[in-house]
Amino acid sequence: MQPSQQHIALQHYGMTADTPLPLRAAVLHAVGHVGRIITPEEFQRGAVVLPEPWVVRYIIEHPDEVRNLTRRQFQEFSAALLERKGLRVTLGPVGADGGVDVRAERDGEFGPELILVQTKHPDTGNKVGLETIKLLHYQVVTENATRGLVMTDSSFTRDALKQIAAYRFQMDGADGERIRQWLEALRTGGGPTRCRTP
Questions:
Q1: CB neighbours (10 Å) of residue 52?
Q2: 68-71: long-range contacts (C-beta < 8 A, 24 or more apart)?
Q3: Residue 90's beta-bridge partner residues?
Q4: How many C-beta atoms lie closer than 10 Å to residue 38's C-beta?
Q5: Tens digits of per-residue pLDDT, 38-71?
Q6: 0.85 surpassed by pTM
Q7: What is the rounded distance in angstroms from the CA atom of residue 49 to the CA atom of residue 72?
């Protein structure tokens, strides 16, 4: 994409030089990938989730930038990271979602798998609690999904960890440390670290 096209694309989305770099890069990559400027509604619906998103490339090199993302950007980042781990992802719409932000699918050894993902980007110092785990587990059961995954750049409360362990065949959690390990593996070219869910 030529510099003039980049400028037009960013203006179309109301972005300036002050817009956080990960979001600007993701939009420019999306526009370049589909060959046209997508509508803001398409972008918000998750119409474009890319196999090589610039936001993930940037954060792989600057993992501390995760804390500077908005909640929606963290959802987009999580979806893109799961794509890097080989899953086919659909990003949910902006707003109330019933506990599911990303739907991730893959062809497992024993058949197709559906992983429902809830992302949590809480304020600094806050942890993901028990209710989040229970809500996502309910969605997994209701939708007959393979399992649920809660992704957060924070950590989990003790009760939340106990509940994940109790639902270990249907639930998993990826906290900030685990996500940093995935990013480090991507940065060093070793591929994502092995984990039960993705």
A1: 11
A2: 68/20, 68/22, 69/20, 69/22, 69/121, 70/121, 71/119, 71/121
A3: 103
A4: 19
A5: 455 555 555 444 434 566 677 778 888 888 888 8
A6: no
A7: 13
